[in-house]
Amino acid sequence: MTETRTFTEQNPIRVFLLDDHEVVRRGISDLLGAEPDITVVGDADTVEHALVRGPALRPDVAVLDIRLPDGDGITVCRELRSQMPELACLMLTSFDDEDALLDAIMAGASGYVLKQIRGSDLVSAVRTVASGQSMLDPATTARLMRSLRADPAETPSVAPELAGLSPRERDILALIGDGLTNREIGTRLYLSEKTVKNHISRLLAKLGVQRRVQAAVLASHLKHPEEGDRPAR
């Protein structure tokens, strides 16, 4: 269970913002900065800028736009959390996108909110994820994962692809399915983060997928390889 964290005016929530629109960044910064227990420590308008500035500022919460000119906030979430496992990432987007929600879950995001959210609700969301709680609805998350696992298009090729993985790659795939970052996987398996990245690149190629979330879905079949073949009781 995630440890609850508390913040005060003397020890405010340190927030980092990523959005390619200056007006949005200023608006969120002004909104959050008006709260006595929240301070905005910096912002960025590109993925490259965020990956440089974020770790240096050591925020407690990163509010990340999902769609950016040079990439996406989900990649930033994954990379920042690999360096700062305690960081809570709150994904902010204009679109109610199920694929993006799944990607955010697998990247370790603590929350996912639409830009249409009311200002007071965004402040509450920042406080919620900063305290160690999740803003991801469990029922929605479970439904999305079930729908992907039940996708018949995924099922036929699962078994032979998984059979081609080495025992180490299977271990890493299972941990990806559990939502661990590269750094957390390395700690669990006593591997360097670079070695984990190399293993993941190879297993993605073997599985014939390009995205980490697709590998996570296949990981569910690794845990229950015969589930689809069992007769109904």
TrEMBL record:
Return the Gene3D superfamilies for the record.
3.40.50.2300
Report the superkingdom from the record.
Answer: Bacteria
Q: Which residues carry this modification: 4-aspartylphosphate?
A: D65
Which residue positions does the secretion signal occupy?
none
Q: Where is the HTH luxR-type domain?
A: 158-223
Pfam families in the record: GerE (PF00196), Response_reg (PF00072)
Report the InterPro entries cross-referenced here.
Answer: CheY-like_superfamily, NreC/VraR/RcsB-like_REC, Sig_transdc_resp-reg_C-effctor, Sig_transdc_resp-reg_receiver, Tscrpt_reg_LuxR_C, WalR-like
Statement: the UniProt record of this protein carries the keyword Transcription regulation: yes
Q: Which GO terms describe its biological process?
A: phosphorelay signal transduction system; regulation of DNA-templated transcription
Alphabetic keyword roster = DNA-binding, Phosphoprotein, Transcription, Transcription regulation
Domain Response regulatory span(s) in chain numbering = 14-130
Ranges annotated as spanning the membrane: none
> Can you name one GO molecular function term for this protein?
DNA binding
Name of the protein described by the UniProt record: Response regulator transcription factor
Organism encoding this protein: Streptomyces adustus
